[in-house]
Structure formats: structure tokens, C-alpha cells
Amino acid sequence: MMMKTYYKSIFEHEHWANLKVLESMIAAPEIPQRVVEIFSHIIAAQRIWLDRINGNRVDLRVWEVFDTEIMLELLEINYADINKIIDNQDLEQLIVYQNSAGQHFTNTINQILSHLALHASYHRGQVILLLKGKIEVLPATDYIFYLR
């Protein structure tokens, strides 16, 4: 149960951090297209991995681009699905999947969740860097700031 509590905390932070970045994107008078592309990638990658875990058909491209108007809804859907997985599935369960290049791999849900959290953190950093100079105050999204 300890691992489930850990992932709950990690993904609460991730959701909080994603919302802070999205708020900054929306508040910016103009944002570079690359910001939209990278933040969309965070959302699309989440969805792809959640679909793989749940055994659903993967319909999105890894670099799918979404309108900023629907990003909040997509983040909320993904976060709800992440919580269902954490609550209801064995995190040591093996998931067999095919990547976007058609190669087959097997990983545990535990490994996939770790990848998702690290992946989003990496790309949020890129988005924040690209927002520098476009907004007055950059969002502080570090885990320790969330805990405070």
C-alpha cells in the first residue's frame, strides 16, 4: 500500500504543476507554438500510456497538438484515470505494448507511472524555459513547493 500512497502524492503534484503551467500559458499575452506543442505532448503521452495500461486502442500521436481551450479537460480526464489505475490495479502487473515505432516491450505499471511523472517534469521545464520573458512571473512547480 505504501507504493500506492507514494504515487498518489507524485501525481497530485504532477496535476498541480500541470495546472500551474497551463494557467501561465493561458495568462500569457502570446505563447510560442513550441510551448503548445510540448505541453500537448505531455497530455498526449499520458493518454497513450494510460490507454496501454488499460488495454485500450491507442489513437493519439505522441506529438499530437491540442488547442489550449481543451487542455484543462484533457488533464482532468488523465488525472482521474491515473488515480483509478493507482487505486484499482496491481502496480507490479506487466503491461505488454507496442511503441510508436511498432516495437514490442513489457514494463510494470510501476515503471510506467515513474516514467510518466519524470517525463512530464522534464517537459514542464522546457515549457517554463520557453515562457521566460513572455509572462511576468514564471510558475514554480518543484515538488517541494507543492508540499509547502
Description of the molecule:
- The chain has 148 residues and is mainly α.
- Helices cover 66% and strands 7% of the residues.
- Strands 1-2 form a two-stranded antiparallel sheet.
- Strand 1 and strand 2 (104-108) form a beta hairpin.
- Helix 2 packs antiparallel against helix 4.
Order of helix and strand elements from N to C terminus: HHHEEHH
Question: Span from first to last CA?
Answer: 24 Å
Provide the gyration radius in Å: 15 Å
With strands numbered from the N-terminus, the spatial order across the biggest sheet is 1-2
Q: Average pLDDT across residues? A: 96
Structural class based on helices, strands and sheet pairing: mainly alpha
Q: State the CATH architecture.
A: Up-down Bundle
User: Which stretches are low in confidence, meaning pLDDT under 50 for 5 or more residues running?
Assistant: none
Tell me the number of helical segments per DSSP (H or I, 4 or more residues long). 5
Features of this protein?
148 residues; two-stranded antiparallel sheet; 66% helix; mainly alpha; Four Helix Bundle (Hemerythrin (Met), subunit A)
